[in-house]
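Hi V.,

You were right to ask for the full record rather than a summary. Here it is.
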Amino acid sequence: MIDDAVSRLESMLISVPELNTVGSRNNSHESSGKEDSENNSGNNIENKRIETLSGIASVLLPLVKKGDEWHILLTLRAKKMRHHGGEVAFPGGMWEPGDNNLVDTALRECEEEVAISPQAISVLGGLPFSQTRHLTRVRPVVGIVHSLNGMLANPSEIAEIFTVPLAFFIADPRIRTDIFTQKDKGLTHRVPAYDYQGYEIWGFTASVIVQLINRGFTYTSDKVSCENGNRMSGNAPNEIKGETIRLHSAPEKIWIY
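Predicted structure:
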């Protein structure tokens, strides 16, 4: 059943053209024979691209088939990293001026961090923008990795590379539900936290995985919920109105930022 879901997944995601709607350098008028007005137009496109993408990050959510089972590839960031050191994360990072778009960012960061070439990845689409607890906007990009040959952790950023079966997250064996509260805006959202073979998967990473599972890998109306017990808010990030949602009695942990 997971094989069938993966084959349909592309239709469930934000399409690649929609992810790349911001103008790129290739759209600028650089030929010497163009009129000044066209050159100005090209410069405006480039300036708008930089203005739009500066300060935004992108991550790759890599799907890997191992034997008969689909997995998500994750990394354990080096403890010395300034942001999210020692935490489980997707390959990814901040947009840079050399990236035409956020798909390029995700693919570049994946190659830099774990040495998987963009040529080994088929991008299926993306998920809606998410925000980390440090208030960075992030675009998750979903892709299938066809080969792990040559995969190697960049020791300056990554301590370990590992994979987790999709079936693990579909089963939702959470160890707790984290409650994140943004005190200056009064916003609260709940995210499952998981332990897989000693790796704690929580926060932004867990939230994005739940989004993916709920979009493409639930087979009935049994959605993974960010809620506990019977307290259904009606506006939890992964709550699907009109459908039955699994409820949990896992302990809760409150985070205020």
